[in-house]
Design goal:
Largest sheet of chain B: none
Distance between the termini of chain A: 53 Å
Helix content of chain A: 25-40%
Structural class of chain B: mainly alpha
Low-confidence stretches of chain B: 1-21, 95-100, 317-323
Oligomer: heterodimer
Strand content of chain A: 25-35%
Shape of chain A: elongated
Radius of gyration of chain A: 25 Å
CATH topology of one domain in chain B: MetI-like fold
Mean pLDDT of chain A: 87
Number of helices of chain A: 11
Strand order of the largest sheet of chain A: 6-7-8-3-9-10
Distance between the termini of chain B: 39 Å
CATH class of one domain in chain B: Mainly Alpha
CATH superfamily of one domain in chain B: MetI-like
Largest interface: A-B, 34 and 25 residues
Shape of chain B: globular
Low-confidence stretches of chain A: 412-416
């Protein structure tokens, strides 16, 4: 187990493509760090650089106390789990797991012990003599894990290890991964494009864009305090609703105006983020999380009101996503465009309806809202996000939101009491 | 195909579904029956088989009958069949069945000697080409040195050089080598083997490289991270997967070298130890009508490649890679 330190690491491919640009990252011993970002952002490259499968162009990589810049992969004492598992097809499960240990001249009895333990933990005992071809996808995935575990390496590197599994299996494997980390507490670097994996597994999450690190923080902080529009739009599902808006003082009351709506902002918001002051009577980019909406009848008067026409509703059982059209064009900003995977350039980052933005509000599952209905929404204005329209940077350091004082919880409590 | 029947408001999404159904119906009507296909295929197979079949039958008929009647007469008089030719071929002497002897002029055991010479050339040439090609292809695909692609393209380019062009240059190269080192490979079996290896390698490297390039790189990377060196990776990860490709290469190479006449003729002509092809060729030249030796000898020469093919063909199984990834 060891600390991994990347210091101003660059990776430039022959041909001039810069896959990683000035990446500095300190991963402490036993930490679970997740690298996320849209496809083509360089997250897998970072992992491969740590593994030594590719050479860094500039900077320093240290694992433990050793500078690893020019150390061969086999001497870095890392174990990697590949997206497609990369099991050796000609070997049995046992041989697959034992291979790395044999290469390191581990005594036979020790190999047997570790393989047995790993097989036991992963429920692979009855498959030890099988070849990978005779295993299901989930079993192969576990063999790939087993191959990493038996090595007892300094760190695990995982490259989208769950992305080839079906949805249900992915969730259960995610849980076992978390358990495994809890038990072994081996330093882990995990690459994924699935933000649910990132949020649930990571002690810290690194958001990458075009090879540049945007933000490293705990999952909750990434959600609550994104440093820029890119991170704000990337983290959270459904994604943050954004629009170009004007900040004004309406009779001294701070108010944000957009697409024919006016939302009064609590004075606290401006106090806690004094930088906002400079943006009055100017354009800002406003962001509202779908979870900061609620049906107006379920929340108290401190929430601002917004009347919209429902376009589509998605009932998810635990909540309802209300999708409505905002009478404003989509925000045109590099941060928004970058959210679209490189392969789909030209596609819209935000869903559009006749050239207008579509927003999502998450409301209580027991709301009776239907598609086409006029609905009054409450907005938790203490939790609005503001971004600079030029730089895309968050305006002020947004503090984690205070616990919600909505009537949602109050009414639920009241309901419970009645029973 | 261009007209889509206009039905009442067909949803556009259904159109593609509609068309293939029509197409498949049309194809079904046009599809020839299984019987017709089999008949055509059978006729083609028969057409291809006739020369080999005639050769085989000639080898089983008494030598003297060759000038008397056609080989197909054997179908009406199966009693003509005899193993005499084979016996004579291996023991020497003349084929004497039916009306006077047909002299062979063969020394006893000369066929066996030719067989051995053929093997002495083919086996090393095959083993070397398979081994060197696999190693070279591994290095080209998985190595990390500059100019791998340039080397590969050069090797592929060499495939177009006809063997005939190189006969004289290589012979003079051998001679120069002889005057420099005192050992002239010209006229030796080693010289022939070297020639065959050199000319087998471009195709070998091409074939193996094209196979290796299809292997998932993650497999090699997993091995590298697991701590395997290049040699271990080659032997324990790549070769078990490449065995099918290597087997097909070995079969190709063996049959080419086994059937080679030209190189042997140029480099070994006049030598007492010649491969089977040259041995048979000599029969034709000296005794123009000595068909019983040629046909019988050819049958013998077919047997060995057949054994090689049958020995390796079990490796031509699909799905060697199944389970590696995903």
């Amino acid at each position: 187990m060891a600390q991994i330190v990347l210091d101003k690491v660059d990776k430039t491919y022959p041909g001039g493509v810069k896959a990683v640009d000035g990446l500095s990252l300190e991963i402490s011993d036993g930490e679970f760090v997740v690298l996320v970002g849209p496809s083509g952002c360089g997250k897998t490259t970072v992992l491969r650089l740590i593994a030594g499968l590719e050479q860094i162009t500039r900077g320093t990589i240290r694992i433990g106390d050793r500078v690893m810049n020019h150390v061969a992969p086999k001497d870095r004492d890392l174990a990697m789990v590949f997206q497609n598992y990369a099991l050796y097809p000609s070997m049995t499960v046992r041989q697959n797991m034992a291979f790395g240990l044999q290469m390191r001249k581990t005594p036979k009895s020790e190999i047997d012990r570790r393989v047995h333990n790993a097989a036991n933990v992963l429920g692979l005992e009855e498959y030890l003599e099988r070849k990978p071809a005779a295993l299901s996808g989930g079993q192969r995935q576990r063999v790939a894990m087993g191959r990493a575990i038996v090595r007892e390496p300094e760190a695990f590197l995982m490259d989208e290890p769950l992305s080839n599994l079906d949805a249900k299996l992915r969730v259960s494997m995610r849980t076992s991964l978390a358990e495994m980390h809890e038990r072994l507490s081996v330093t882990t670097v995990y690459v994924t494009h699935d933000q649910v994996e990132a949020m649930t597994l990571g002690d810290r999450v690194c958001v990458l864009r075009d090879g540049v690190l945007q933000q490293v923080d705990t999952p909750q902080n990434l959600f609550d305090r994104p440093v820029n529009l890119f991170v704000g739009g990337f983290i959270g599902s459904p994604s943050m609703n954004i629009v170009t808006a004007q900040l004004i003082r309406d009779d001294g009351e701070p108010t944000v105006m957009f697409a024919g709506h006016r939302l009064p902002i609590a004075e606290d918001v401006v106090h806690s983020r004094p930088e906002i002051e400079a943006y009055f009577d100017r354009d800002v980019i406003l962001g509202i999380r779908p979870s900061d909406f609620e049906e107006a009848s379920l929340v108290d008067e401190t929430w601002a009101r917004m009347s919209v026409t429902t376009h589509v509703t998605e009932a998810l059982g635990s909540e309802i996503n209300v999708i409505f059209v905002i009478d404003a064009p989509p925000v045109e900003h590099k941060d928004v465009a970058d959210l679209v995977p490189a392969a789909e350039k030209g596609g819209a980052a935000v869903p559009l309806h006749e050239g207008k933005s579509m927003w999502t509000a998450r409301v209580d599952a027991h709301s009776r809202v239907r598609a086409g209905d006029q609905i009054e929404l409450g907005v938790d204005t203490r939790n609005l996000y503001f971004f600079d329209p030029d730089s895309g940077l968050a305006i002020g350091d947004k503090q984690p939101p205070a616990p919600k004082l909505s009537r949602r919880s109050a009414s639920a409590a009241a309901l419970r009491e009645q029973r | 195909m261009t007209t889509v029947p206009v039905t009442t408001t067909p949803p556009p999404a259904q159109e593609p579904a509609l068309q293939p159904r029509q197409t498949s119906g049309l194809l079904k009507r046009l599809r020839p029956s299984r019987l017709a296909i089999n008949l055509v295929l059978g006729a083609i197979a028969l057409f291809w088989l006739v020369p080999s079949l005639s050769m085989m039958i000639i080898s089983f008929r008494p030598a003297g009958l060759f000038e008397v009647s056609g080989w197909w007469k054997v179908f009406s008089t199966p009693s003509q069949l005899t193993l005499q030719n084979y016996k004579e071929l291996f023991t020497g002497g003349s084929s004497t069945v039916l009306g006077g002897g047909v002299p062979s002029g063969l020394a006893p055991g000369s066929v066996l000697d030719a067989l051995r010479t053929s093997l002495e050339i083919s086996v090393p040439a095959t083993v070397l080409v398979t081994a060197i090609s696999s190693l070279a292809a591994y290095s080209i695909v998985f190595g990390r040195w500059r100019g791998r692609n340039a080397v590969f393209l050069t090797v592929v380019g060499l495939m177009v050089v006809p063997l005939q062009v190189a006969l004289i240059p290589v012979a003079s190269l051998y001679r120069d080598m002889g005057s420099l080192t005192g050992w002239n490979p010209f006229g030796t079996i080693t010289g022939v083997v070297i020639f065959h290896v050199a000319f087998g390698l471009p195709f070998g490297v091409f074939l193996m490289r094209n196979f290796f390039i299809g292997l998932p790189t993650a497999l090699i990377e997993a091995g590298r991270i697991d701590g395997a060196g290049e040699w271990t990776l080659f032997r324990r990860v790549v070769i078990p997967l490449g065995i099918a490709a290597a087997a097909s290469l070995a079969i190709f190479q063996f049959i080419w070298v086994w059937n080679d006449l030209l190189v042997a003729l140029v480099f070994l002509g006049g030598d007492p130890h010649v491969p089977l092809t040259l041995f048979l060729y000599d029969q034709e030249r000296t005794l123009a009508a000595n068909f019983w030796i040629i046909s019988t000898g050819s049958m013998v020469s077919i047997v060995v490649p057949l054994i090689v093919f049958l020995a390796f063909q079990r490796h031509f199984v699909r799905g060697m890679l199944a389970g590696a990834v995903k």
